[in-house]
Amino acid sequence: MPDSANPLAPTEAVTTAPVVEMTDISITFPGVKALDGVDFRMFPGEVHSLMGENGAGKSTLIKALTGVYSIDSGEIRLGGESVVFINPAQAQAAGISTVYQEVNLLGNLTVAENVMLGREPRRLGGIDWRAMRRRAKDVLEGLHLHIDPNSLLNSHSLAVQQLVAIARAIDIQAKVLILDEPTSSLDTEEVAELFRVIRSLKERGVAILFVSHFLDQVYEISDRLTVLRNGQLVGEYLTPELLRIDLVQAMIGKELTALEDLGSRVHATEKDEEADAKTVTFLSAKGVTRKGSIAPIDIQVDAGEVVGLAGLLGSGRTELARLIGGVDRLDGGQLKVNGKVLKLRTPRQAIKHQIAYSSENRRAEGIVDDLSVRDNIILALQADRGWFRPIPRKRQDELAASYIEALNIKTPNADALVRNLSGGNQQKVLLARWLAVAPRLLILDEPTRGIDVGAKAEIQKLVYSLAENGLSVLFISAELEEVLRLSNRIVVLRDRRKVADLVNDGLSVDDLLAVIAEGAADSEIKTGAAS
Amino acid sequence: MTTIDAPQSRFAAVVSRTTDAFTSPKSGPVLVTGLLFIVMFVAGGVRYNGFFSATTILNLLVSYSYLLVLAIGMSFVIISGGIDLSVGAVLALSTIIAARGLQVGLPPVVVIVLILVSTSTLGLLVGLMINVFQIQPFIATLAAMFLARGLCYIIAKESIAITDPFFTSMAQPIILGPRLSITASVIIALVALVIAVWVLQYTRFGRTTYAIGGGEQSGTLMGLPIARTKVLVYVISGFCSGLAGLLYSFYTLSGYALTGVGGELDAISAVVIGGTLLTGGYGFVLGSALGVLVLGLIQTMITFEGTLSSWWTKIFIGALLLVFIVLQKVLTSRRA
Amino acid sequence: MKDIFFKVIGHRLFWPLVMLVVLIAINVINVPGFLSITVNAEGNLFGSLIDILRNGAPTLIIAVGMTLVIATRGIDLSVGSLCAIAGAMACSIILTSPDPNNVGTVAVAVLVALALALVLGLWNGMLVSVLGIQPIIATLILMTAGRGIAMLITEGQILTVQSTPFKFLGSGFIYGVPFATVVAAVVLALVALLTRRTALGMLIESVGINPEASRQAGVRARGLLFLVYGLCALLAAVAGIILTSNQTAADANNTGLFIELDAILAVVLGGTSLNGGRYSLTGTLVGALVIQTLITTVYTVGIPPIATMVFKAAVVVAVTLLQSPTTNAALERWRSRPKPTKTSSRPSEPVVAR
Q1: How far apart are CA A350 and CA A320, in angstroms?
Q2: What is the rounded CA–CA span in Å between residue A278 and residue B104?
Q3: For residue A410, which phi and psi values (nearest 5 degrees)?
Q4: B221 to chain A: which residues are within 8 Å by CB?
Q5: What is the mean pLDDT of residues A49-71?
Q6: Per-residue model confidence (pLDDT) at position A121
Q7: Who among C141, C149, C304 is closest to B322 (CB)?
Q8: How does pLDDT run across A471-508, given as a tens digit for each residue?
């Protein structure tokens, strides 16, 4: 590790006083020490990135700073003075403004209100709507956002809503601006726009806390990095002085050999498959499309083949997967399985035809958190049989036990509620659910997102061995390396269209990036997907 | 060419604005309510003699001023995403307090203050239960309903007549013209309506009420005074129920434990027919006023019809509820 | 020791059971023979406990259906109106028949009433599952219109019925046990078997906990919703017939008035969350017993029966406050609080006067 790995190393020439100083912060939730004696500071006019894997304590630290959680011990100083915030309103009043990952605005109110609510201009004791609209329009135009301030917020896209949230934060005249994963729903141009805004705020002396999973963005925008791991401080670093590999190591805390190992194995076996020439097409889609979601696309998946879907967020990866998985309905085109035309109207029908779709949104569309591990594993199988033909209890136990063992699911027992498992283990429970219905095609949408690196490697290995056993897999991930490592073939999507269908014989991340970026020369392609 | 295009495009703009307004979850339902009211009023006028007149409207206001006030309080609660099942029982409680208080010789002013303070306090307790103890509004207001109804019986089992000169004077019609008269209650209800419109549209409290209905968590993270507003919404509903009870006792000049059974249903129906989304976040209190008038018109038309039995009222209201609920559903899912 | 203590009081049935025991204790103190059950000349059981079981039967029957509805994140406000409709239907058939005392007539009347309720329940299910309307709103429609429909059937009259077989349904005995109690017990057992011996219960909970995840797992929520609303309406009709038989009259306005509230209350007292998901039929049984015992207690203690509602309010407040997340969090804090000796061993901070 480099020298600067020492927390708060004295090598930095600090001239200005920090605007935020959090010292020895601890927060305990029932059963978990979410933050354990963490120090954190922010300087005016600096972008400070907060880094860490899931469960590192990033959001807890942010919520401690913004008054959502109260701290068990430690001190928060703002501008040199000790402060205690008991709610977000107080933090906001003190000049700390936050834009959360999921847009936390009010879709039922107008854009102007969402920018101004809490600080509305008043006239004659009431809200001055006209002045409010005018001011909101000014702020929005400062962000090059030309929308009617009197329109309802939920009539706009997510990206626009995100910019409205930032407009709100800017208008507060914050000393400290917290951007928690602000770029996850933005396209490249919108990210560039956002960074322009961040830079101008920096010049105004605002301290900005930036959280993003995209390493490129972090390196592009931030001056300083603080890395957390398992609720503890790993260190504070100056961005230019920290190598990426060191940053990743600091975040993960263990060597990456597990993944590298797998990588070589995959490439080795890939050669075997090339030798094996007889392929059977399992699924072929011709011109499948859905209005406002994805343009007509052809795609084919052979038996035992892993097809990767690559592309930026919003490129149509998930949309395509949902069409094939029967989650959304086709507006046009034709889907053939084993040569027979299928009309899928529900996921249930897809499952009947041995196509299983595992959603990217584990919490909202995947696990049933108040049911046991066992019930979650047998859910799809049981649903397929119908309620009147229950799976015998003994069979349930066998199924659960075998998957818990095979996938190395860490749970006290099969009766434990899924909500008490870690993200990676929840993901494995989901995989078990889909494997239990014995699919011929498994669609995995971001199966490794937000889970720890160990579980990630295990899931990758599993995908590989499943394919070896003849299962077709449609694999979606924002991490191009992962797609490259696992896929026999890669379909690249851009702007909801298919732009390439590549055989993966030694493709590199750069090759893939070039395809993704092709024809988009005017906009810089810099996303974390390439990290 | 622009001179020729202009009117056309202006017409097109008007058309598109109108369609927008009618298909917006915010304004669509209330516009439909407005149309419905006009259609019913005109249709009634064509069918029945003496229906299409200011008298009909004023009579509606006189008969339903109490329901208007109930619906105002209910609008606040429903816009905030809650529900108040206690309003009918609280209304009964306040008629009982009025009648009993006057019977034991309390001066009218004291009785009125006592009613408004005690019903607001009940609302405050409900609000605290919901906010501090995170109990569903359905259950908390159900408890308040039981409590209020029970207290009614404890205070007086039988109907008590009100003979107080102030109260009887409030029941007297105020003559506006030939066959045109209102009561003081109408004025009170209309004043309450104006205040409610102003509060919801022009105060931070009002906008925060909408914010709670739209997303409580978002509102909290935006630094809005969610907790205080949420409690206050139930205080307002309690206050309005008390005021409605007062108007009801002016109207009937009696207090009785069994008045207002199902009043909560009427109030909820009026609010929903008035275009407020039962899921919260959208709605206008003026719409609720229109909803009350529509309910009243149904009753009046059935009376005018003569041959229809009274239970048809309930069936009609149920059918109207269905229409509006489906309409809301269609409008919100289109936008989502 | 402390842990066991907290495990016990943390159980969702702890407070409702305490409430039940307290209520029974109050009764025993006031009425010394409260717990005694006697057999009368006809060999039927009599006693206050039997009364509780008999009078609480309609609420319990409805609450069982309501539990399943609530588990799917729903609610059914129309059960009271359905009681009235079923009672009205049965009575009007019996009244128009030439032989009201014929068992066949009564059977037909009951079956027609149940079928009508089932149709209306499926209507609720249609609104909720096909049109996707919020359950509280969807069932509000039938709650409002239902009394109108009942009046339509009775033509605004109170239909008084003189029919021995019909009277048996509400106040008869079978092997000494009140028939209504037997019906309630059978309903509870059948529904428990139906949901826990098949996968129905698990799928209902799954839909209640996470509808979208369930859909993607291939669970047909639509069918389940039709089923639970249909079942709930059917059970409401059973309760309605028992109530009507008890009163020997169908009263469109008052049969089953507020019974939806009692039923929902029983479910909530029993620890099933109104937010859907995991449900407990045992809990619902306890909840229904608490409500009925409370009503009985008000009688035995000599409080005017009309004040029952105040006590219901008190019970609702007490139990919901004790079960509330806030109270649990406070308990949790108290539980994990460091021991006093530890606190005192901390170095005391100097008190700085300002």
Answers
A1: 14
A2: 99
A3: -90, 100
A4: 68, 88, 98, 100, 104
A5: 83
A6: 84
A7: C141
A8: 999 999 877 788 888 999 999 887 778 888 888 888 87
Per-residue confidence band for B320, with pLDDT thresholds at 50, 70 and 90: confident
Q: Are strands A224-229 and A232-238 parallel, antiparallel or unpaired?
A: antiparallel
Residue of C nearest to A326 (CA): C216
* Residue bearing the bigger pLDDT, B13 or A219: A219
Q: Are residues A434 and A444 in the same domain?
A: no
Residue pLDDT, tens place only, C77-130: 999 999 999 999 999 999 998 888 889 999 999 999 999 999 999 999 999 999
* SS3 at position B280: coil
Distance of CA A221 to the CA centre of its chain: 19
Amino acid letter for position A73: S
User: Which residues are A32's β-sheet partners?
Assistant: A29
How many residues are given for chain B?
336
Of the candidates B140, B143, B268, which has its C-beta nearest C140's C-beta?
B268
Q: Which domain holds residue A246?
A: 1-93+215-253
Final residue of a domain: which of A230, A253, A276?
Answer: A253
A261 shares its domain with A349: yes
In terms of DSSP H, where are the helices of C130-177?
A: 135-154, 164-171
Out of A22-31, A271-280, B268-277, C208-217, the most confident range is: C208-217
**Chain A within 8 Å of B333 (Cβ-Cβ)?**
no
A472 located within any domain: yes
pLDDT (mean) for A62-87: 88
As beta bridge partners, residue A152 has: A110
CB contact (8 A) between residue B218 and residue A91:
no
> What's the whole-number average pLDDT of chain A?
81
Does C129 contact chain A (CB < 8 Å)? no
pLDDT band at C335 (very low <50, low <70, confident <90, very high): low
Q: Does A127 touch chain B (CB under 8 A)?
A: yes
User: Same domain for A370 and A481?
Assistant: no
ipTM summary value: 0.83
Between helices A373-385 and A423-436, what is the axis angle to 10°? 30
Give the β-pairing of B180-182 and A497-503: unpaired
**C305: which DSSP letter?**
G
Q: How many CA atoms lie within 13 A of B104 on its CB side?
A: 10
Asked if residue A411 belongs to a domain, the reply is yes
Q: For chain C, which residues make up each domain, given as ranges?
A: 56-330
Residues A400 and A281 in one domain: no
Q: Which fold has domain C56-330?
A: ABC transporter involved in vitamin B12 uptake, BtuC (1.10.3470)
Pure H helices in B172-225: 184-202, 204-214, 216-221
The yes-or-no verdict on residue B245 having pLDDT over 90 is yes
Last-in-domain residue among A438, A461, A488: A438
- Alpha-carbon span C330 to A152, nearest angstrom: 40
Calpha distance A323→A344 (Å, rounded): 8
Taking alpha carbons only, the member of B20, B50, B27, B73 closest to residue B289 is: B73
Interface check A2 vs B, CB under 8 A: no
Give me the total of CB pairs closer than 8 Å, taking one residue from chain B and one from chain C: 131
Task: Report the distance separating Cα C111 and Cα C109, nearest Å.
Answer: 6
Please compute, for residue B13, the number of CA atoms within 13 A of its CA located in the half-sphere on the CB side: 6
Residues C216, C84 contacting (CB under 8 angstroms): no
pLDDT at B112: 93
Is the sign of the CA dihedral A236, A239, A240, A244 positive or negative?
positive
The Cα–Cα gap between B293 and B36 comes to: 11
What letters, b where the CB count within 10 A reaches 16 and e where it falls short, cover B47-86? ebeebbeeebbbbbbbbbbbbbbbbbbbbbbbbbbbbbbb
Q: Reply yes or no on whether the pLDDT at C46 is more than 90.
A: no
Nearest C-alpha in A relative to B201: A127
Q: Is A105 on the interface with B (CB under 8 A)?
A: yes
From C218, C278, C332, residue closest to A370, measured CB to CB: C278
